[in-house]
Amino acid sequence: MTEIAKARYPIIDMHSHPYAKTPEQIAEWVANMEEVGVEKTVILTSSVGREFDAIYRQYAKYSDRFEVWCGLDFTAYDQPGFGGAALRELERCYRAGARGVGELHDKGQGMASGKSKTQGLHPDDSRMDSMFEKCAELGLPISIHVADPIWMYQKMDRTNDGLMNAYHWRLDNQPNIVGLTGMIEILERSIQKHPLTTFIACHFANLDYDLARLGELFDRNPNLYADISARYAETAPIPRFASQFYAKHSDRLLYGTDMGFDRPMYRVTFRILESLDEHFYETEQFDYHWSLNGFGLPDSTLQGVYHDNAAKIIASHPAKPR
Asked: Which residues, in sequence order, are bridge partners of residue 117?
């Protein structure tokens, strides 16, 4: 067993949420980051208005350690004239300190941003165009979660490899849902409509079961990145192919967690990315009960995934509102 207490290179965690609710918890998080080697964490609030402002104030004390992103306001998305108020709120959040947008969700029934939800409004809808263009104008990258792992759409029976997790998050029984393949097509249309906007597809765009297809998306779309958050258990069973994929696309992958802020959580991600351990189990952090393997990523790949790719994205937007 390889124990890796601190990451080999400084990390920018591009996918986390406001898990810490009190000043004491935030201070604990910062101490954990220092101990394990996380330089900065992006807090995806998915929120607007007073909720965003309150979260921003909580983390402002550690502005060098946290970057706070806002959501989008989908209120009245199905009414004529939708968009004006949402744009004004996006600009207000930007002036208040938001440095990106996310995490937006669309698992096949419509977009959601925190408590603001839609039915049938997908990222490629023309009603989204002005908001995505405004993000490009303001230099705000967009973190977007489309679809879910393939097993959530499949039959909930003994043929489903991920049944132990899929049943809880199942989508196979949901009405009027766009499937995983359809959501990837919607994502790509959105990316191509807005070539000046930076998109970050969360969780390998949920193509952890078909990384080759994600690679094709990268090849066609230079404004697309993907974070690796919360999909360690899904990729660790295929270490040889996964490590080759990381090497080939080391300039487009971003470290992320999406699993809280305790030290053991960070350290199991380091073990998967850095070590060559084989056939080990981790049931505290993951809901899949299959064995895992380390990728043994080389230094050049680790530097990009851990830090440099995220630093490039963060550097592309203004340090403070204009």
From this structure: 112
